[in-house]
Write a structure and sequence with these properties.
With 208 residues, the protein is an alpha/beta fold. It has seven helices and seven strands. It has a seven-stranded mixed β-sheet, with helices on both faces. It binds S-adenosylmethionine.
C-alpha cells in the first residue's frame, strides 16, 4: 500500500519513508495498533486503511496526542502546525474551518473508521497509565521527544514487547532530540531486547 498525505502535515513526509513504514506494519499485521503522537492524523489514516484492507472492520486504532500546546506541555516537541502552502492554509481556514492539529479534525479525517478508532487527548505520561497494554499488538512511538517522556512511553510499552508485539520508534537518531536515542539505548540495554535500525537510523524497531 502507498502512504498518502491527505493534504496535511506528517512526519513521514520524505520520499519512500511512509511506504517503508506501512510495509513494516504490514509484516506484523497487528489487530490493535497504538500511535503515541498523532499530530494531523495522516499516519493514523494510513494505518486504518491498511488494517481495514487486512481485517475489514475487525481492528482497533488508538491514538494519543496533546492536540494543543499549553503551559503544562510547553517543553514537549510539537512540530510547526502552520502550513507554508497558501492553498492548504486557505483550505483549512476558510473551507474546512478546522485546525488540522485538533482532535476534532483528526476524528473527521478518520470518520470512515469511527467504530475502530479511539483518540485520546492529553499527555502520554498520564494517559498510558489507563490503557490496558495487554491488548495492544503494535506501538508507533512518535510523541514527546525528551528522555523522560520517551522512557515513560517505553516502560508502558514493555508489556507489548513481552507479549510478542512490536514497538517502532521514530526519530531515533535526531540531532535536535538526543533524548530519544538515549532513552531507547538505555531501555533495550536494561531489558535485553532486540533492536533493529532502518532508514538511516531513523527508525528503531524493538522486539523480544
Ligand atoms: C512528530 S509528531 C507525530 C507525527 C505523526 N506520528 C505522523 O506520523 O504524522 C509528534 C506529536 O506528538 C505530540 N506529543 C508531544 N509530546 C507528547 C506527549 N507527552 N503526549 C502525547 N503527545 C505528545 C505532539 O503534539 C505532536 O503532535
Amino acid at each position: 500500500m502507498k502512504y498518502k498525505k491527505y493534504f496535511r502535515k506528517t512526519s513521514l513526509k520524505q520520499k519512500g519513508v511512509g511506504d517503508l513504514f506501512l510495509e513494516e506494519v504490514n509484516k506484523k499485521k497487528p489487530k490493535v495498533f497504538l500511535e503515541i503522537g498523532v499530530f494531523h492524523g495522516v499516519t493514523a489514516r494510513n494505518v486504518c486503511e491498511l488494517l481495514y484492507n487486512i481485517y475489514g472492520s475487525d481492528f482497533k486504532y488508538i491514538g494519543i496526542d496533546l492536540f494543543e500546546k499549553n503551559d503544562e506541555n510547553k517543553s514537549e516537541l510539537i512540530p510547526n502546525t502552520q502550513f507554508s502552502n497558501p492553498i492548504k492554509k486557505f483550505y483549512f481556514n476558510y473551507i474546512k474551518r478546522q485546525n488540522p492539529y485538533s482532535k476534532e479534525a483528526v476524528e473527521n479525517l478518520l470518520k470512515k473508521f469511527n467504530k475502530n478508532v479511539t483518540l485520546l487527548k492529553g499527555n502520554s505520561n498520564k494517559i498510558l497509565k489507563n490503557i490496558d497494554m495487554k491488548k495492544i499488538d503494535y506501538v508507533f512511538l512518535d510523541g514527546g521527544h525528551d528522555y523522560k517522556t520517551v522512557m515513560n512511553d517505553l516502560i508502558y510499552s514493555k508489556e507489548v514487547i513481552l507479549n510478542g508485539g512490536t514497538v517502532l520508534c521514530d526519530d531515533y537518531d535526531l540531532s535536535q532530540a538526543p533524548g530519544v536515542k538515549k532513552a531507547i539505548d538505555d531501555f533495550i540495554k536494561q531489558n535485553n531486547f532486540s533492536c533493529k535500525f532502518f532508514y538511516n537510523y531513523r527508525f528503531a524497531k524493538i522486539e523480544k
